[in-house]
Structures are given as C-alpha cells and as structure tokens.
C-alpha cells in the first residue's frame, strides 16, 4: 500500500483587539513554586481579617502575571524556560485537547523523533514530558485551562478563560499580563478518509521532513495530497527518499 503525505496547514490567528485562541482545562501548579495567591489568601483567619481562600477560589480570582505563554509545544516551553530563568515568573496555559491535540502539541502524536539534537531516537510524548518537567523545574506555573479570548488594545493585556469542559463560553474573571507570548503552533489538515486515523503515524503523515527518512517510507512509492507550493516542496524533498512520488 502506498503511504500518503497529507500536507498540514497552520491555523492562522485572527488579528484584532479580541483574538479567539485555543489552549485548555484545570490548574496544576509547578512542584517547586507556590500557588499564585492574594494577600487575603495568606492572612490568618482572625476576627477582622479575611479568611484564607480555597484553591478553587484562588484559581478563579482575577490574576495578573508578568508574562503569560499560551501553548505548550517546544516553542512554548523554550519561552517558559528562558522567562523563568530570568525571574519573570511565567504562567503557561498548556492546553488540554485544544483543537483536538493534547497538551504538548503535535509532537505528542509523533511516535518516533529522530531529528531532535541530543537524541538518536525518542518518543514524541516522552520528549514533551521532559520539556514540561524542565519548565516546571525552572519555576514555570503551568495551567491546563483554555484561553478563549485576549485583548491587546491596551496594557496590561487582558485575557479570558473558557470554563472547564466548555469551549464556547467565557468565565467572568478578566486576567491581565504585562506580556503574552502566543505559541499555539499548528494543526495538520486531515482529509478524514477511511483508515486515516488508524494509520496516522504509521503510513500516513503530515510532515515529509519529519517522517520521510523513516524505514516505513524510505524507498517506497509515496503519494502527496495537495497542489500548492507546500505540497510541491514536500514532493521535491521526498524524491530523495521514495522510489516514486505521485502528487494528487
């Protein structure tokens, strides 16, 4: 059976003052850093003082951060590590099945990675787990809740979260940040053909450069689906790997 490469396409972000985004689901503080709390949350429960806030209350209060990172792929974690080492106390919204992809991005759906420096071969999910652990070790707060909207019209920048399990509505709380890094990455454009999901990563791919050198594709007849410049670029690359390349 001929292997197929369906050229992936990034999902462009819409410009404007209010920018819908995807990220996604519940709060997980870093192991070596304290949760973000207000002064009221740390006050002792004495007469005339505010009672400590529960963790859920702390999560839903309006929060201001020096820097917020939306996205949890290699780019997002690289930004988080550098920001944390610079004592900027970054907060990352890593996403949970945002656009149908687990936190960590497309690498979590990649079985074997052979082109990342330092590893002869590593599982994509394992690589992203290590990046996440390093971000946390440096002091990044990681939140798995969806960022549904941002407003860049004035500083500090504003953003709103989707309620847990709801990708349509927005929570009432308005959160702010001095800087926001958007690292939401891309999602492959699939064709929804019979068997596509079954053979994804095992005969069907969206990245010729990533997977073209793997034994399952090398010296095999390959099909590239697409007719734009990206499809042609992928096809030219695959001529060095495949026994035959057909463009549909």
UniProtKB/TrEMBL annotation:
The keyword Disulfide bond applies. Residues 66-248 form the FAD/NAD(P)-binding domain. The keyword Disulfide bond applies. One of its GO terms (biological process) is cellular response to toxic substance. It comes from the Eukaryota. Keywords: Disulfide bond, FAD, Flavoprotein, Oxidoreductase, Redox-active center. GO terms for molecular function: oxidoreductase activity, acting on a sulfur group of donors, NAD(P) as acceptor. PANTHER family: THIOREDOXIN REDUCTASE 1-RELATED-RELATED. Belongs to the class-II pyridine nucleotide-disulfide oxidoreductase family. This is FAD/NAD(P)-binding domain-containing protein.
């Amino acid at each position: 059976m001929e292997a197929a490469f369906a050229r992936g396409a990034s999902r462009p972000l819409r410009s404007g003052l209010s920018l819908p985004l995807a990220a996604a689901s519940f709060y997980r503080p870093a192991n070596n850093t304290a949760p973000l709390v207000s002064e009221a949350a740390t006050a002792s429960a004495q007469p005339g003082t505010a009672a400590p806030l529960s963790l859920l209350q702390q999560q839903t209060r309006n929060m201001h951060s020096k820097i917020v990172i939306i996205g949890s792929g290699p780019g997002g974690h690289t930004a988080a590590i550098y920001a944390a080492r610079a004592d900027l106390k970054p907060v990352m919204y890593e996403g949970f099945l945002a656009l149908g992809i687990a936190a960590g991005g497309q690498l979590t759906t990649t079985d074997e990675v052979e082109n990342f420096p330092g590893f002869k071969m590593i599982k994509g999910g394992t690589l992203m787990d290590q990046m996440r652990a390093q971000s946390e070790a440096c002091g990044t707060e990681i939140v798995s809740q969806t960022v549904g909207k941002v407003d860049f019209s004035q500083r500090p920048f504003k953003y709103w979260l989707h309620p847990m399990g709801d990708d349509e509505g927005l929570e009432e709380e308005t959160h702010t940040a001095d800087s926001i890094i958007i690292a939401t990455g891309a999602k492959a454009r699939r064709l929804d053909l019979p068997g596509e999901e079954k053979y994804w990563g095992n005969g069907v791919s969206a990245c010729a450069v990533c997977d073209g050198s793997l034994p399952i594709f090398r010296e095999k007849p390959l099909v590239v689906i697409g007719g734009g410049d990206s499809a042609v670029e992928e096809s030219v690359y695959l001529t060095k790997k495949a026994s035959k390349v057909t463009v549909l």
